[in-house]
Amino acid sequence: MLEKMVEAFDGEKVIEQFEEMTRDAERVQKETLKKILEENGSAEYLQNLGLNGRTDPQSFKDCVPLVYHEDLESYIQRIADGASSPILTGKPIKTISLSSGTTQGRPKLIPFNDELLETTMQIYRTSFAFRNKEFPIRNGKALQFIYSSKQFKTKGGLAAGTATTNVYRSAKFKSTMKTIQSQCCSPDEVIFGPDFHQSLYCHLLCGLIFRDEVQFVFSTFAHSIVHAFRTFELVWEELCGDIRDGVLSSRVTALSIRTAMSKILKPNPELADLIYQKCAGLSNWYGLIPELFPNAQYIYGIMTGSMEPYLKKLRHYAGHLPLMSADYGSSEGWVGANVNPMLPPEMATFVVLPNIGYFEFIPLKENSQDQEQEGDGGAIVAKENKPVGLTEVKVGEVYEIIVTNVAGLYRYRLGDVVKVMGFHNATPELKFMCRSNLLLSINIDKNTEKDLQLAVEAAGNVLAAEKLEVVEFTSHVDLSREPGHYVIFWEISGEAKGEVLGECCNCLDRAFLDAGYMSSRKVNAIGALELRVVGKGTFHKIMNHYLSLGAAVSQYKTPRCVSPANTTVLQILCANVVKSYFSTAF
């Protein structure tokens, strides 16, 4: 019945509607805000702020304060606990999303509703329409490394799960994926399986079974694709054995998955031999993805920000296939679509859809003396600068994003810093720069996630000369003794000589170019940077820790800075240190 209900996808119509909307972005923004405030005017939060039915942007800004998540926690907790009165929205919130929890060490609760789901589908349809112009997808499948964690009930009986889980479990997601010809190779039982490792193994197996039908490879984040093919390197012979005999490996114990896979997996010695020959003929697994999936046209997933360190390895697996960065959003909702899919991920920009929320931007000046540290998150904010509207931003300027969405978040500080690279009609094209939270800071030093990433890349070049690579990394500010110092944790792909790692450590220290850091190091106000090399599989243990807290693999991001309060992750890291080096660069 569902197949008959699904309409054919009209990419040209989607693009036409997008172009029309972005040409009149200011009007669309005003209408979007008006609609949000009218639909939620009865909510306690807005009632208490004295809007009194006004829906214009100026009254909204005059009455409603800028907020961080912690300012709304008590309201969201009451919703989760089952309060029946309208608190943040006019209509009752029936579902709660959980953030990945890797930023603050614990998941945030975020309201989720059908309206927010619809904005997600709009983003998917829009970016697919532009992507499909360049690489038309015909009747085929997508090898999607997607995973859903379990939903649970809150104290008040609301369904709660990660944002990706809430999306993947919806009928609207399935129908949209069918419409845009992005159906997953794997059955639902694999996606919703109880064990990530078993699901990953079966995703790979399903991809191989349907290898000629695979049109593209996708996961929410680039690191999930890299992790999948690193795993493939270890289990490829076992996968070939399963295909040859038509019998699923004993490593898969979940009955639901085994039952579903039994309907797909049949003995196929010819396919097993072909895959074996393909793998045996590769040099260091270069070009693995197109070799396995000859009709795949591209690799797709979020590849910006904290995903950039994985691009080198992903390109190695991808060979000649282009990498396309997926859209820009967060657990709180979406911001923009990638309508220029041919740009490499490092240059990806995202066009804000003016009808999915109301957007404001706080102007920031890079390296400005006017910036101050504020709030628990240590966010960089320019206090004297008032937020400007979507159509008022300027090309080349840097901003912090403020979001008002359809699910009860009003003037919410998303915590992202973006740069305006240009305009698509009247709406800006944004480049994600970094999280606004300062990752590493001891006194006057200010180093962001991007600074850390660049330092690791520079030091990684020293390692690359030895044919080794940084598999994963994170950081920590150690204030246990005076003076405090930066600690960088590395997991690397093999054994490295002590003198090589010592040079890597010095290179890391020199690569932090922030003036406050360099001057502090020279006078020993900040101690020598420390590089701690951890054993193989350490970061996998960290991921398993977050999964045990309810995070989904689809949403998981390696925390790039571990705070002292995040004791469990620190304990995992410190317990697995195999070598330690202190910089002699200053």
Automatic annotation (TrEMBL):
**Protein's name according to its UniProt entry:** Jasmonic acid-amido synthetase JAR1
| Record GO cellular component, one term | cytoplasm
The gene name on file is LOC111473333
The similarity comment for this entry is: Belongs to the IAA-amido conjugating enzyme family.
InterPro entries linked? GH3, GH3_C, GH3_M
Q: List residues of the GH3 C-terminal domain.
A: 450-563
The signal peptide stretch is: none
Q: Which GO terms describe its molecular function?
A: acid-amino acid ligase activity
Keywords in alphabetical order: Ligase
Q: Which domain of life is it from?
A: Eukaryota
Please list the residue ranges annotated as the GH3 middle domain. Answer: 350-435
Origin species, per record, is Cucurbita maxima (Pumpkin)
